[in-house]
């Protein structure tokens, strides 16, 4: 390892979930010196939150709702935050009504003016579902479950806005994540653990990075310091194509434009998020007070407009993009002193808990490597 008198054991690029979890583990568990750099003026990556001018806690990069089935992930993060139980609910604006999404028993009954039971709605789905020989695309996933009409009303327009492509052009994984329910469960997620950091994500990240062995540099592109400050191993959480100077071409991402507004009223909408699958240029509106539980006379919301250009948010799931990524992945595997972690570095759509789980797994491997080197040094010393 580096002589820590003048350098760092680890240079970590990016202070989001992947980088911050690894910084915390390496510093607290192995006593290593870590420098974490981020080109943005804040820690927390896209999960960063702050109080706006009205004094309302908002998520500048759109709503981040924490949910996980992993006790390991939840217990790990619980070291750095208390939690507020919160179960996210989403309504979709369809045919002049606000209807539960994921599609459930109430969605079907209210949309079609029916009074079906859970058993009958199963039969209803079976009667409208289209037979698909081989499920290849996002369209196939939905029409094979709930038929063409529900697909057109709830999925097709939303997906076209979000991805700039028809669902028939997109990999099945995009809509495979969205369940369909035959009961009245209107929660957006069904995970075991559903909660929000009690004092916000930024406070949680501050607690995570509050260690004497961790130094944080913001407003810094890692390329500015990579040859100036000594380090032994790099953890890179940025876009993998940018690391290799786009030598195989640019990996496509969908981006988002956010418009934040504050209204002098107690509530703007009945739930945390309302989707707009067919009308307007935005895909959804989220109201933060539902999500954070904050009490305030005013309320702040965010409108989300998908974009082709801008900060990278969603890797585009098409076979040809995976082919490009595989070229970068092969290059990444050749590097002994750089580890690629997180959504952008591995070109995969991960939820927050999945990034934490990935970072903890990577830490396990780095720890084994570190302990192996210590044993070698001890053997040589003998």
TrEMBL record:
User: Is Lipid metabolism there in the keyword field?
Assistant: no
Q: Which cofactor does it need?
A: FAD
Q: Where is the UDP-galactopyranose mutase C-terminal domain?
A: 153-349
Superkingdom is Bacteria
Q: Which UniProt keywords apply?
A: FAD, Flavoprotein, Isomerase
GO terms for CC?
A: cytosol
Q: Which GO terms describe its molecular function?
A: flavin adenine dinucleotide binding; UDP-galactopyranose mutase activity
Q: Key word DNA damage present in the record?
A: no
Q: Name one Pfam family in it.
A: NAD_binding_8
* InterPro entries per UniProt: UDP-GALP_mutase, UDP-GalPyranose_mutase_C
* Similarity comment: family membership: Belongs to the UDP-galactopyranose/dTDP-fucopyranose mutase family.
Under the heading NCBIfam families, the entry gives:
UDP-GALP_mutase
**What PANTHER family does its record include?**
UDP-GALACTOPYRANOSE MUTASE (PTHR21197)
Q: What is the protein name for this chain?
A: UDP-galactopyranose mutase
Q: Which organism is it from?
A: Deinococcus yavapaiensis KR-236
């Amino acid at each position: 390892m580096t002589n820590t008198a003048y350098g760092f054991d680890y240079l970590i690029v990016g202070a989001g979930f992947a980088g911050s979890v690894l910084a915390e583990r390496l510093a607290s568990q192995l006593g290593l010196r870590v420098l974490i750099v981020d080109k943005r003026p804040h820690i927390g990556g896209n999960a960063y939150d702050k109080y706006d001018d009205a004094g309302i806690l908002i998520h500048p990069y759109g709503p981040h709702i924490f949910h996980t089935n992993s006790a390991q992930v939840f217990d790990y993060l619980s070291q750095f935050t208390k939690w507020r139980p919160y179960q996210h609910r989403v309504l979709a604006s369809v045919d002049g009504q606000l209807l539960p999404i994921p599609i459930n028993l109430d969605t079907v009954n209210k949309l079609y003016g029916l009074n079906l039971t859970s058993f009958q709605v199963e039969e209803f789905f079976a009667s409208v579902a289209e037979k698909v020989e081989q499920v290849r695309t996002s369209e196939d996933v939905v029409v094979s479950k709930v038929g063409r009409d529900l697909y057109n009303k709830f999925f097709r327009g939303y997906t076209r806005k979000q991805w700039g492509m028809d669902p028939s052009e997109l990999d099945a994984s995009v809509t495979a994540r969205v369940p369909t329910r035959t009961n009245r469960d209107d929660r957006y997620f069904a995970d075991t653990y559903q909660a929000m950091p009690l004092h916000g994500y930024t406070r949680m990240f501050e607690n995570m990075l509050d260690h004497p062995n961790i130094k944080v540099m913001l407003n810094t592109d890692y390329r500015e310091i990579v040859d100036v400050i000594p380090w032994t191993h790099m953890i890179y959480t940025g876009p993998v194509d940018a690391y290799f100077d786009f030598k195989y071409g640019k990996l496509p991402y969908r981006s988002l434009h956010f418009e934040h507004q504050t209204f002098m009223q107690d509530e703007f909408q009945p739930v945390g998020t309302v989707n707009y699958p067919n009308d307007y240029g935005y895909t959804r509106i989220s109201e933060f007070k539902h999500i954070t539980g904050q009490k305030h006379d005013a309320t702040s919301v965010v409108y989300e407009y998908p974009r082709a250009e801008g900060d990278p948010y969603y890797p585009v799931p098409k076979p040809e993009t995976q082919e490009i990524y595989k070229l970068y992945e092969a290059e990444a595997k050749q590097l002994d002193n750089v580890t690629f972690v997180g959504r952008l570095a591995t070109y995969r759509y991960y939820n927050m808990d999945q990034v934490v789980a990935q970072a903890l797994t990577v830490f396990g491997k780095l720890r084994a490597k570190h302990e192996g080197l210590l044993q070698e040094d001890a053997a040589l010393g003998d």
